[in-house]
Write a structure and sequence with these properties.
This protein is α+β, with helices and mostly antiparallel strands. Helix content is about 50%, strand content about 15%.
């Protein structure tokens, strides 16, 4: 176990350096991180290092109990640090799971759709002040400047 923990520590450090090298690397990391926004930063970094295409990750208990989905045989978990000590825990992506025999709960995967742009823009204006810009991307950049 100590050897795996050490390897994961090295992966974490090297990935942290790699994603801050340039804007493209940072953008690629952010694209991965936004899909798993409920995870801690260190978990997001390790998820990106091991499975940058992961769309919804959770532990096996969450998949089994909450969503009634089962992890596929031979699926490889995404190792992350367990905050409860010098241990590891494993996440699995939704692509590593399948529905149970008695049905499963839908997995809510958030997506920004065109219909959400106006309400989100209004909420951002109310929270961070008036913004100039025509496109939604302009609104986001102006909001970031105001914040």
């Amino acid at each position: 176990m100590a050897a795996k923990y050490q390897l994961l520590t090295e992966l974490y450090e090297s990935t942290g350096i790699a994603v801050t090298k340039n804007a493209q690397a940072w953008g690629a990391f952010l694209q991965s991180a936004c899909r798993n926004y409920k995870c801690r930063f260190d978990e997001q970094l390790l998820i990106y290092a091991q499975r940058p295409d992961a769309t919804a990750v959770a532990g096996i208990d969450t998949w089994n109990r909450l969503f009634k989905r089962w992890v596929n045989k031979d699926s490889k978990g995404i190792a992350v640090f367990d905050p409860k000590g010098n241990a590891l825990k494993y996440y699995f992506d939704i692509s590593d799971t399948h529905e149970g025999y008695y049905g499963s709960m839908p997995v809510p995967i958030w997506r920004m759709e065109k219909g959400y742009e106006q309400p989100v823009t209004e909420r951002l204006k109310n929270r961070f002040g008036d913004v100039k810009g025509g496109t939604f991307a302009d609104v986001l950049l102006e909001t970031a400047k105001n914040a």
